[in-house]
Amino acid sequence: MRVLVVEDERKVASFIKKGLQQEGYATDVVHDGDEAVHTAISFGYDLVVLDLMLPGRSGLDVLREIRQQRPRLPVLVLTAKGALEDRITGLDAGADDYLAKPFAFAELSARIRALLRRGSQQNTRLRLADLEMDTAAHQVRRAGHSIDLKQKEYALLEFLLRHANRPVTRTMIVEHVWDIHFDNVSNVVDVHINSLRNKIDKGFAPLLIQTVRGVGYMLTDRGRVHRTE
Ligand code: CA
User: Fold this and answer.
1) How far, in Å, CA of 93 to CA of 1, rounded?
2) What pLDDT is attached to residue 122?
3) What is d(CA 105, CA 16) in angstroms, rounded to the nearest whole number?
4) What distance in Å separates the CA atoms of residue 197 and residue 217, rounded to the nearest whole number?
5) H runs (alpha helix) in the chain
6) Tens digits of per-residue pLDDT, 39-61?
7) For residue 228, pLDDT beyond 50
8) 3-class DSSP state for residue 219?
9) Lowest CB count within 10 Å: 25, 77, 168, 191, which one?
10) Per residue in 94-153, pLDDT tens?
11) Is residue 29 within 8 Å of 48, Cβ to Cβ?
């Protein structure tokens, strides 16, 4: 899951970013309204945390713009404490939830989980052949055997399952599983694909993770993949 944090106060922004990263979210931060709109609609975020008081374009403007271009992207708005009018305007403008500052990180985190659950409610169980992922319980099984995955392996597998039987590029993977400033991109994807293969494919048949030459990877139960470029 990939989260964009829009917050001009650097301390608050880095506090949120650190907390979210520890919980396994790929997290990017931008500090002003103009950059926020551009970033939010240019990359595949799963959720935006948006402060309303921003320099340049206001948070409400940003929210309206995001709503126009990405109607289903969940947005959690941060407002100054007691600014009731802000909250009402924010909800009217299309915020999915709001949180008054100052807040405890645990509350922010719980609200983010709730919004992400709401967005993927029909889809808490992902399945391909005998591979199953229960995103509510955070569990993976292959042929009934429980499989222990590290955080990034889990995020990578979830992304592959949500795009099952379609080829995905390393760039797509990185954009959803790692943050924007991550270097050494293709190597880190390949390393995690290999460790995932050892856990979900080794000793099982058929092999589900396939390399699509010249493109990237594909999770599929439809036999060998041909070059598609
Ligand atoms: Ca602010």
Assistant:
1) 24
2) 53
3) 7
4) 12
5) 10-22, 33-42, 59-69, 84-92, 105-119, 151-162, 170-177, 185-200
6) 998 887 899 999 988 888 889 89
7) no
8) strand
9) 191
10) 889 889 888 999 999 999 999 988 866 555 788 999 999 988 788 999 999 999 999 899
11) no
Beta-carbon contacts of residue 185 (< 8 Å; ≥ 6 apart): 170, 171, 174, 178
Per the listing, tokens 């080794």 go with: 202
Sheet holding 145-147, edge to edge: 125-128, 131-134, 139-142, 145-147
Tell me, in angstroms, the distance from the centre of ligand 1 to residue 55's CA. 8
Distance 129 CA to ligand 1 centre (A): 48
Look up residue 218 and give its DSSP letter: E
Rounded CA separation 200/48 (Å)? 32
Report the separation in Å between the CA atom of 4 and the middle of ligand 1, taken as the mean of its atom positions.
15
